């Protein structure tokens, strides 16, 4: 029996969005929030030149391997243009780690999250959500008070103050998650 489910956001949790933006010349030092990523944009990029191996954070594959070998189910819970996000999942090789049914990509996570958690709760007793956006974590906690929320302190979003909410844990990289969950 699995210990539970860990929902991982994609951008700035698994995927190094800042690295890609720098390589594309779109990085803004003070604010790296730029428009969404589409499949059309993806098809115009020379991915070999960018360095595919650098698109995910250095610790990601080791940490995901650890949890999969310690009886945790894992899912990507991402937001954006569905085809663009799926392209990034595939190009990084994470599609080999996360089965298709565990690649949960939505146009709007805020809208999808309540329904998704209600569907997932009966199947997994323990659910963790790992995201860089406090607002998403707050919604998760409101819908499912027993969920464990983990704020990843990367990129610009994690610093946004959300009234009446504090995550259960704050981490700088996913190696910290191994220490917390065990």
Structure explained in plain terms:
- The protein is α/β, with parallel strands linked by helices.
- It has one domain (4-181): HAD superfamily/HAD-like (Rossmann fold, 3-Layer(aba) Sandwich), CATH 3.40.50.
- The chain is built from 8 helices and 6 strands; from the N terminus they run βααααβαβαβαββα.
- The protein has helices spanning 17-23, 39-42, 47-50, 60-69, 82-91, 109-120, 134-143, 175-181, and strands at 4-8, 72-79, 103-106, 127-131, 148-152, 169-171.
- The chain has a 6-stranded parallel sheet with strand order 3-2-1-4-5-6, with helices on both faces.
- α5 (82-91) links the parallel β2 (72-79) and β3.
- 34% of the residues are buried.
- Mean pLDDT is 91; it is low at 30-34.
Structural class: alpha/beta
**Backbone shape:** globular
Low-confidence sequence ranges: 30-34
**Amino- and carboxy-terminal Cα gap:** 17 Å
When the domains are counted, the total is 1
Strand order of the largest sheet: 3-2-1-4-5-6
Percentage of residues in helical conformation: 25-40%
Total number of β-strand segments?
6
Sheet having the most strands: 6 strands, parallel
CATH class descriptor: Alpha Beta
- Write the CATH homologous superfamily: HAD superfamily/HAD-like
SSE order, one letter for each helix or strand: EHHHHEHEHEHEEH
Looking at the chains present, what oligomeric state does this protein adopt?
single chain
């Amino acid at each position: 029996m699995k210990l539970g489910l860990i929902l991982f956001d994609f951008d700035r949790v698994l995927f190094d969005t800042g690295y890609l933006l720098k390589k594309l010349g779109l990085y803004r030092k003070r604010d790296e929030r730029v428009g969404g990523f589409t499949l059309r944009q993806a098809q115009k990029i020379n991915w070999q030149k960018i360095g595919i191996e650098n698109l995910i954070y250095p610790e990601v594959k080791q940490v995901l391997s650890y949890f999969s070998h310690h009886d945790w189910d894992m899912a990507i819970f991402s937001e954006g243009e569905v085809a663009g996000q799926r392209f990034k999942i595939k190009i990084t090789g994470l599609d080999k780690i996360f089965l298709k049914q565990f690649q949960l990509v939505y146009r709007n996570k805020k809208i999808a999250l309540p329904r998704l958690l209600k569907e997932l709760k009966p199947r997994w007793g323990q659910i963790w959500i790992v995201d860089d956006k406090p607002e998403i974590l707050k919604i998760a906690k409101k819908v499912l008070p027993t969920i464990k929320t983990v704020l990843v302190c990367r990129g610009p979003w994690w610093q946004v103050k959300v009234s009446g909410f504090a995550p259960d844990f704050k981490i700088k990289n996913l190696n910290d998650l191994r220490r917390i969950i065990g």
